[in-house]
Amino acid sequence: MGIAHTYIAQKKIETAAKKAGHNVKIETQGTIGIENPLTADEIAAADIVLLAADVKVTGEERFAGKKVVKVATETAVKSPNKLIEKLSEIVNS
């Protein structure tokens, strides 16, 4: 998946999460660097961390102790509603 897919996935996840009544903050990492970086407070407050990526995520150690789900970017692009539903199930389990 290319750089455009990063932003497509971001939009799809934001839309699906909002539709399901969830708040999200999305940090993107691509060829132009990190955009919209997550703060330590935001990470601490998160119920779950989704890593929708096809390459190594920089700073993954920041999420130690959190529920972390890793999926391919394609999953976020093709099935964002199912993905958000699955994340909700994990949080509530």
Written description of the protein model:
It is an enzyme of class 2 (transferase). Keywords: Kinase, Phosphoprotein, Phosphotransferase system, Sugar transport, Transferase, Transport. Its EC number is 2.7.1.202. GO terms for molecular function: kinase activity; protein-N(PI)-phosphohistidine-fructose phosphotransferase system transporter activity; protein-phosphocysteine-sugar phosphotransferase activity. This is protein-N(pi)-phosphohistidine--D-fructose phosphotransferase. The protein has 93 residues and is of the alpha+beta class. The chain has one domain: Response regulator (Rossmann fold). 44% of the residues lie in helices and 15% in strands. The protein has four helices and four strands; from the N terminus they run H-E-E-H-E-E-H-H. The protein has helices at 3-19, 40-45, 73-78, 80-91; strands at 28-30, 33-35, 49-52, 68-71. The strands form two sheets. Strands 1-2 form a two-stranded antiparallel sheet. The protein has a two-stranded parallel ribbon with strand order 3-4. The N and C termini lie far apart (31 Å).
